[in-house]
Recover the amino acids of this structure.
């Protein structure tokens, strides 16, 4: 039941004024003529005021602890008023009766003095209890917003994990299908493919624990994945990558490039005479572009909608606009908006501060 900083500051700011007012009510003009009043009455009322304030804090904070919810505000205020007004009245009356009983400074109780003292106490309580309640409600509102944000983040993380978990088995299943075909057609290539697959999947397990990945990591992974494609299709598929280094630390959803390249290979004809060319490059406005020449298969390959729909869903969860799928007679293009990596920026700033200090 410790007082808050606001409660302490308010007491320290208001108590000298309250002390002065009560002494003026008790002694009237004598206050300005007799130095003794300042020596014994001021410390005494300050002490009694401190005890009264401490009681107010305990009662008020216990009530707030018992009814902390925003929806309980009306009930909490009514209970505070029901408990604190009588306590305040008792505290003020006690001061006047003590002064009367012990004739402190020759004081004799007068009804008007008691009324004025109660008015001072009531006014001060109204002002500061309103301030304390407003501060409490504001803090609870901030906490509720933070809790809501945490729940939303947990929900987003769960959805991201669900989408990510769709990709990993899908990726492995497609690789095993390819390996199965190679074992039948070319055992040497099958062995090469298996070696590359072990490297790629080991990298995948090590680097795909997060929902987001840096552009540099995604490019590193797609180069490894391309080696699998080269083992399977040879010169029938080409990959050109041109990335501006300043985008290396930007973020995109993990495995995005692998899904896009996989889709390209799945839905287009591959041949040595007319190779499928995939270009991955960055563009102004924090964009990563994946483009390929269109060579549509005559028979459509079966689709489980894991590819583009998965990426689109991830960008929707991130609330990051700019994801586009563009198509004309010759090209199929996907535009991926890049997310600024705050973590990297903070780390770089910290390193810079260490160097300059």
């Amino acid at each position: 039941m410790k007082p808050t900083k606001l409660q302490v500051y308010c007491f320290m700011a208001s108590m000298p004024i309250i002390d002065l007012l009560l002494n003026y009510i008790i002694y009237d003009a004598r206050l300005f003529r007799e130095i003794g009043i300042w020596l014994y009455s001021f410390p005494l009322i300050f002490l009694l005021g401190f005890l009264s304030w401490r009681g107010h804090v305990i009662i008020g904070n216990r009530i707030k602890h018992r009814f902390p919810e925003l929806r309980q505000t009306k009930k909490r205020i009514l209970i505070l008023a029901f408990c604190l007004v009588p306590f305040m009245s008792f505290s003020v009356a006690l001061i006047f009766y003590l002064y009367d009983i012990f004739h402190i400074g020759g004081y004799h109780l007068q009804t008007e003095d008691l009324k004025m003292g109660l008015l001072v106490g009531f006014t001060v309580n109204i002002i500061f209890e309103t301030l304390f309640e407003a501060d409490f409600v504001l803090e609870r509102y901030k906490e509720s917003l933070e809790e809501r944000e945490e729940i939303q983040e947990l929900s987003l993380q769960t959805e991201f994990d669900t989408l990510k978990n769709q990709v990993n088995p899908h990726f492995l299943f497609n690789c095993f299908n390819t390996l199965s075909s190679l074992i039948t057609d070319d055992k040497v290539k099958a062995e090469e493919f298996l070696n590359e697959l072990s490297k790629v999947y080991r990298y995948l397990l090590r680097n795909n624990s997060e929902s987001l990945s840096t552009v540099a990591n995604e490019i590193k992974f797609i180069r490894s994945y391309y080696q699998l494609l080269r083992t399977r299709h040879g010169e029938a598929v080409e990959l050109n990558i041109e990335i501006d280094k300043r985008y290396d630390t930007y973020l995109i959803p993990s495995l995005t490039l692998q899904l896009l390249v996989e889709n390209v290979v799945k839905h287009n004809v591959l041949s040595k005479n007319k190779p499928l060319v995939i270009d991955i490059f960055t563009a102004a406005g924090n964009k990563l572009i994946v483009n390929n020449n269109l060579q549509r298969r005559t028979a459509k390959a079966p689709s489980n909608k894991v590819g583009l729909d998965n990426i689109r869903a991830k960008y929707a969860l991130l609330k990051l606009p700019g994801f586009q799928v563009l198509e004309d007679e010759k090209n199929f293009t996907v535009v991926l908006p890049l997310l600024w990596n705050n973590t990297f920026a903070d780390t770089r700033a910290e390193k810079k501060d260490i160097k300059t200090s």
Summary: Residues 111-185 form the longest helix (75 residues). The two ends are 42 Å apart (CA to CA). The first strand starts at residue 212 and ends at 214.
